[in-house]
Design goal:
2 domains, Enolase-like, domain 1, TIM Barrel, seven-stranded parallel sheet
Length: about 375
């Protein structure tokens, strides 16, 4: 049984090392909700990946803060938790708010791994000693700057290049990249920027030999993606559409995709992420771990998840230095010149959180404590 004493909420503000542009807009800094759980003399951290605006999902940091403080933490403090996998049941009365729930569940899994004195990756069912890494490259100010960025990432050893795209920033860019690097593992991510009228245009992407086209159509769609997948050879990867195991089953059975991107926050925590991983594995659908501009706390959890056996494609779990001038963990996440991250074999996440650095970045905080427990 896990007995939680207190849960601390913090909002930190961190500037990105470089602006990151998608079809949603440009991000230059992140407001981030962190949770810290104190239990039985141990401390564990979780990160909510909800953005500043409800653009990627309907969650945002301010709604996540409210629901975490008023609903989720009180329920978690009252719950009788056996392990990290007990958290979804403890929070099931609250509908949605998956990113807020994931922050708390990730911290409890991390706490359990410390209590059991095992690596978090092992507790989750991971089998890999190292994970393969790709990078997601945002829309750049010019094609020339994009080419320079790709060259830099390939030189660093990354195994897959993913290009953010949108109408007007797609075929010309793909052609330029393929002309210079005909053999690299290349994919694109549209973040739902296209519609049915674009089917013929998307079909031309087959000539660029992409590993996948990620979420080209509506963020909540399976049906029209299944129509598109029947028309193109390029594998469709679903991201935003997959919220849970049931969504994964529906998408696979409808032929809406041939690859699935798993994000811990998007599916509501490790328990559901593992369930999506397992059902995809049963049906021969490879998965990979997507990124949400996480700090080292969320990045460490992504590394642990990516060690599971069906994460067969390079994910977006890249080095801390790609996003932050200074991360809030040590050691910072680094990628080898072979494009790999070693999965920590030490107890817990394998990374030390730096409370002093977090305190300097904190703009608001709140602590909720468990009610006094009566013992016989």
């Amino acid at each position: 049984m896990i007995t939680i004493d207190a849960i601390h909420m913090r909002e930190i503000n961190m500037p990105l090392a470089h602006p990151f542009e998608t079809s949603f807009g440009v991000t230059t800094g992140r407001r981030i909700l962190l949770v810290e759980i104190e239990a039985e003399g141990l401390t564990a951290w979780g990160e909510c990946v909800a953005g500043e605006h409800p653009y990627f999902t309907d969650e945002m940091i301010d709604t996540a803060w409210i629901i975490t403080e008023t609903e989720l933490i009180p329920k978690l403090l009252e719950a009788k938790l056996e392990n990290g996998g007990s958290v979804p049941d403890a929070l099931k009365q609250v509908r949605g708010h998956r990113m807020a729930k994931a922050a708390l569940e990730s911290a409890v899994w991390d706490l359990e791994s410390q209590m059991e004195k095992v690596p978090l990756a092992q507790l989750l069912g991971g089998t890999r000693k190292a994970i393969n890494c790709g990078v997601s490259i945002g829309i750049q100010p010019s094609p020339e700057q994009l080419m320079d960025k790709i060259a830099l990432e390939l030189e660093a050893g990354y195994q897959r290049i993913k290009l953010k795209c949108k109408p007007g920033w797609d075929n010309g860019i793909f052609e330029m990249v393929r002309k210079r690097w005909p053999e690299i593992l290349l994919s694109c991510d549209a973040n739902s920027a296209y519609r049915m009228k674009d089917f013929d245009h998307i079909a031309t992407w087959d000539e660029f030999k992409l590993l996948m086209a990620e979420q080209p159509l509506w963020y909540d769609d399976f049906y029209f993606h299944s129509m598109l997948q029947k028309r193109i050879e390029t594998a469709i990867c679903l991201d935003e559409s997959i919220r849970n195991r049931r969504d994964a089953l529906a998408a696979i059975d409808m032929g809406s995709c041939r690859i699935i991107n798993i994000k811990v926050g998007r599916v509501g925590g490790f328990s559901e992420a593992i369930a999506v991983h397992n059902v995809a594995a049963e049906r021969g659908i490879p998965v990979w771990c997507g990124g949400m501009l996480e700090t080292g706390i969320g990045r460490a959890h992504n590394i642990a998840l990516s060690s599971l056996p069906n994460f067969k494609l390079p994910g977006d779990v890249s080095a801390s230095s790609r996003y932050w001038a200074e991360d809030i963990i040590e050691p910072e996440v680094t990628v080898s010149n072979k494009g790999e991250i070693v999965v920590p074999a030490s107890v817990g996440s394998g990374y030390k959180v730096l409370p002093e650095r977090i305190e300097k970045l904190t703009v608001r905080k709140r602590t909720l404590r468990a009610k006094a427990r009566v013992t016989a």
